[in-house]
Amino acid sequence: MTPALRTARTCTTAALTLTAGGIYLAITLAWWAVLPALYVAAFLAWVAAREYGYHRLILAEHERARRAARLEVRVFTPCCRLHEISYGYAHGRDCRRPPDPTRPRSLPPRAARTAS
Predict the structure, then answer these.
(1) 15, 19, 22, 23: CA torsion to nearest 10
(2) How far, in whole angstroms, is CA 97 from its chain's centroid?
(3) For residue 55, which of 5, 37, 47, 109 is within the disulfide window of CB 3.0 to 4.6 Å?
(4) Cα(46)–Cα(50) distance, rounded to whole angstroms?
(5) Residue-wise pLDDT tens digits, 70-108
């Protein structure tokens, strides 16, 4: 349970209690206290909605971090023959994979290209 969820549940409970109190005050003819009670209940409901959203954001960040920690390093696999021949600088017409941004822009020397 995150602190945001605890706050949201508290505000929801308080808003429901104030709403019930406002209805009771309206029935017992204490009409002068109905409007402030319902106003505070609406404010607490708004705060609760924001805190529930913040709780979901915290959970999503934790899940994102957990998934990022479990990622494995992927081995380079060429997507097409032209990509393999050009050392990752070009792709064939039917290839949809973008160029690798971690590779240097200049081509290796001609001797290194012909040796492999």
Answers:
(1) -170
(2) 26
(3) 5
(4) 6
(5) 775 555 555 666 666 676 666 666 666 655 555 555 555
Residue of 43, 66, 67, 63 lying closest to 55 (CA atoms): 63
**Torsion-angle region of residue 76: left (phi > 0), alpha (psi -120 to 50) or beta?**
beta
Q: 2's torsion region: left (phi>0), alpha (psi -120 to 50) or beta? A: beta
Domain locations in the chain? 3-70
User: What is the spatial distance between Cα 11 and Cα 2, in angstroms, rounded to a whole number?
Assistant: 14
User: How far apart are alpha carbons 71 and 50 in whole angstroms?
Assistant: 32
Select from 88, 114, 107, 108 the least CA-distant residue to 99.
88
Lowest-pLDDT choice from 18-27, 47-56, 84-93, 95-104: 95-104
